[in-house]
Amino acid sequence: MVVSTQVPHLLRAARGEKVDRPPVWMMRQAGRYMKAYRELRDKYPSFRDRSEIPEVAVEVSLQPWKAFQPDGVILFSDIVTPLPGLGIEMDIAEGKGPIIESPIRTLAQVDNLRPLQPEESLPFIKTILQALSHEVGDKSTVLGFVGAPWTLAAYAVEGKGSKTYSAIKGMAFSDPTVLHQLLAKLADAIAIYARYQIDCGAQVVQMFDSWAGQLSPQDYDTFALPYQKRVFEQVKQTHPDTPLILLVSGSAGVLERMATSGADIVTVDWAVDMADARARLGQDMKVQGNLDPGVLFGSKQFIRDRIYDTVKKAGNYGHILNLGHGVLPTTPEENVAFFFETAKQLKY
């Protein structure tokens, strides 16, 4: 038996190696737009069941791999998955997102949080990641992901998703001591979780700071950036060779700040022209993105033109082709297939 030692395409690009085309995957590439996923969701209506029963989560994670052969296969999970391991009980409501039973509002609640022990509270993660690694081999890169401290704190304090973030901003602007202690505890837990994912088979880890774009730049510098750095520094201490990606939704105003976080790759959303993003971040920073997910509702010619435009603007180094956010639930599946087919035919 010959064991291949080939390094997967996306991992090579993420490390900064020269590749012959940009690697491609999609955020939320496993999900409601796929008929296979909807059928499985009918069988397992609870999101936590779909993401925490290993054989189900593996099947969901591999649905887009089997359909489209992306260069990255990402763990099917949620950013709030580790919270119960800290003592923050939650559920994930279909169509509504995470619901926190007892939102964190006091210092006593923060003091009562326990350190994350993923082997005990998240044993399914190892089973899922090891199965994905075995399934895709060196044909694709296995991606793990975590939530960032600010975003997890926003869920924990608000109790659910929010449009105004008034509860956590009220805490930030009136009693920041409690929030900083919460953010520090979350950062340390997230670092443990990211390292655990890497030990279990994740070759690249993306951190989602989904709600940090709701902060002004000065508040981003206070409540988001220092804790992003805290996570990345701890992960790099033990796993210096694992590429780390940072995503902030609505990041146009903080792109340069993202480049100082310690991330190896910055995800760019579609509100920023990719050529402008390259200029603002500097040519040494690797980038991911940044097609508007709505492009996939367009004609095939339009999708092709936008892919070519993005790749041209990103240049022939350090670019992972992706959407600027997750694929939308009603996206035509054949257009997702066309996106991948077109991307994989590109040549630098």
End-to-end CA span: 34 Å
Main sheet, how many strands, which sense, barrel? 7 strands, parallel
* Cα gyration radius (Å): 19 Å
* Secondary structure category: alpha/beta
Lateral arrangement of strands in the main beta sheet: 1-4-5-6-7-8-9
Q: Low-confidence stretches at least 5 residues in length (pLDDT < 50)?
A: none
What sort of overall outline do the alpha carbons produce when their principal axes are compared? globular
Helix content: 40-55%
**H/E element sequence:** HHHHEHEEHHHEHHHEHEHEHEHEH
Number of helices: 16
Mean pLDDT: 96
Total beta strands: 9
Strand share of the residues? 5-15%
Compact summary:
This protein is α/β, with parallel strands linked by helices and 348 residues long. The protein has 16 helices and nine strands. The protein is globular, with a radius of gyration of 19 Å.
Describe the model.
There is one protein chain. The protein is an alpha/beta fold and 348 residues long. 49% of the residues lie in helices and 13% in strands. It has 16 helices and 9 strands. It has helices at 9-14, 35-43, 47-52, 54-68, 83-86, 107-112, 118-121, 123-136, 149-158, 166-174, 176-200, 217-238, 255-258, 274-281, 300-314, 333-344, and strands at residues 72-74, 90-93, 97-100, 141-147, 204-209, 244-248, 265-268, 286-291, 319-323. Strands 1-4-5-6-7-8-9 form a 7-stranded parallel beta sheet. Strands 2-3 form a two-stranded antiparallel sheet. Strand 6 (244-248), helix 13 (255-258) and strand 7 form a beta-alpha-beta unit. Helix 4 (54-68) runs parallel beside helix 8, helix 9 (149-158) packs across helix 11 and helix 15 packs across helix 16. The longest helix is centred in the middle third of the chain and has 25 residues, at 176-200. It is globular and about 55 Å long. The two termini are 34 Å apart. The model has no long low-confidence stretch (mean pLDDT 96).
